[in-house]
TrEMBL record:
GO biological process: 3,4-dihydroxybenzoate catabolic process
Species of the source: Rhizobium quercicola
Keyword line: Dioxygenase, Oxidoreductase
Name assigned to this protein: Protocatechuate 3,4-dioxygenase subunit beta
EC number: 1.13.11.3
Alphabetized PROSITE patterns for the sequence: INTRADIOL_DIOXYGENAS
Key word Transport present: no
Entry's Gene Ontology molecular function annotations: ferric iron binding; protocatechuate 3,4-dioxygenase activity
PANTHER family documented for this protein: DIOXYGENASE, PUTATIVE (AFU_ORTHOLOGUE AFUA_2G02910)-RELATED, INTRADIOL RING-CLEAVAGE DIOXYGENASES DOMAIN-CONTAINING PROTEIN
InterPro entries: Intradiol_dOase_C, Intradiol_dOase_core, Intradiol_RC_Dioxygenase, PCDO_beta_N, Protocat_dOase_b
Amino acid sequence: MSMRSNDAPETGAFFGRDRTWHSPALTPGYKTSVLRAPQRALLSLDGTLSETTGPVFGHGMIGELDNDLIHNFAKPGESAIGERIVVHGRVLDERGRPVRGALLEFWQANAGGRYRHKKETYLAALDPNFGGCGRTICDDEGHYAFRTVRPGAYPWPNGVNDWRPAHIHFSVFGHGFAQRLITQMYFEGDPMIWKCPIVNTIPDKAAIEQLIALLDWNNTIPMDARAYRFDIVLRGRRSTLFENRLEGN
Ligand SMILES: [Fe+2]
């Protein structure tokens, strides 16, 4: 990755949002953005107390298999079909400090590119042992990890022949309902990334590269699963691109 001028350490109290980092709201190559994009000037609203303070989630709600998509929907003794992987990384704030206790939720298509969703129409088969979603909570160092199978690419009705590259959707929850960020993770070396109309709404190549998990050979589990590392940066000019923050702050 090339060095950017804004790679300098950030030491100020406030980190302004960098609008060149995020996709513009209106990107006709991504067809549904046309209807979604605001047509009037943006207003900045302060969050209300209830938005920032509640509801909260309890750590006790996480089940033992919630971070294991290979098994959390599978029949006893069975497992999901696909390339077994571990995805792990850290959630960091704008100064590189760990974010403790954030709730991470993730969802994805199965190894054939098919979602378990009633509106899903892709002809690839469902895997009876794969549900496609899970969750975990970051530890004191901001670390998270989960096991899954590598999702398949899938076609979607946008242009004549558009495909989504293999990806995992992420939601990060803070301590209040308004503190939710959503992004997508891609896989190192996947040539489909650069053909994706959604990825191509992102103006800065470095911002795209931050969404690509790297093959992490050191954390591969021999005879079991390969590892991918994906760090999520919540704010600041090195922020991960969050797709639900395209229009506002
Ligand atoms: Fe998706």
